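Problem 12. The chain below contains 315 residues. Write out its predicted structure in token notation.
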Amino acid sequence: MTKRPAPDPPAMPPRQPTLRQLRGFKEVARHASFSRAAQALALSQPALSSAIRELETLMGVALFERSTHHVRLTPAGLAARAQIEWLLNTYTQGADDLQRLLDTQAATVRIGCIPSTMHLLAPVVAQWRLRHPETVLILSDHLNDELMAALNNGELDIGLGLDFGLAPGVAAAFVAEDELVAVLAATHRLSRRAAVTWQDLKHEPLAVLSRGSTYEMIVSTLRQQGADLAATDTLNYTDTLYSLVRAGLRVGLISRLYTQGQRQDGLAIVPVHRPQMTRRICLMTRAPESQARAAVQRCYAELAGMLRGRAEPSA
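Solution.
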């Protein structure tokens, strides 16, 4: 009688990095110093060094270059940094959500947007909350680069922002197209035009908002048109821009979305053409739909449909 071979023992599951190791990596990467990272974590430096060595052994690759003068990430460490931060953020957010769920039986969805889109987002969020009172929505505003970073690292579940090329793993639903407009005093010589060109504005005293992707687009176009950038004011707030325009001191260049909901008495809003500058507004989420929490899946799908139905086409 042939003896059957003994079955292979079950494979041991692969070891996973611990939270202690991942938090150690994050702080060393942030501080570029083992001693400062150890202080931030309230650990001894030998304990932190040991945790990083264990993580590197587990991953099979060096994550930091160490010398007596510096600590910096290796190429592998740089590649891993965003994913490790995402793992930590989603763990922390998930633990907070779990506690809130146990306390109130409510799921949580974190939504961010760029400031110019809040007037689009807020009304549909209000409607959505009436339909789903069991879900807690946490809203925040960000510059577009910050918004994308927060989606990538897990701080946000859903974002409403600009599609300038999506990172791997980010899904997007087109919501609306935005365009650049000139904001002029109603008495300005160009205020009755159906549209103005960049050449029309070349010698006008201009004002633009100083931060964000739209600023870079405007400055690049003005340079191409040979405009005097020294005569262009860069401002931090829309209220300042509107005040200067109303007084006839400046012509404002701004996204049309920033004009929605603003008091427009004494002003003219005129599209800028040749070239026309537009931006795609998209609702985005990082996790593939099949992997997202049920509350995030439902919220993302329903908000996308509501936003597309509400957004007005550019004039």
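Discussion. The CA atoms of residues 125 and 131 lie 10 Å apart. Students who got a different answer should revisit the alignment rule from Section 12.3.
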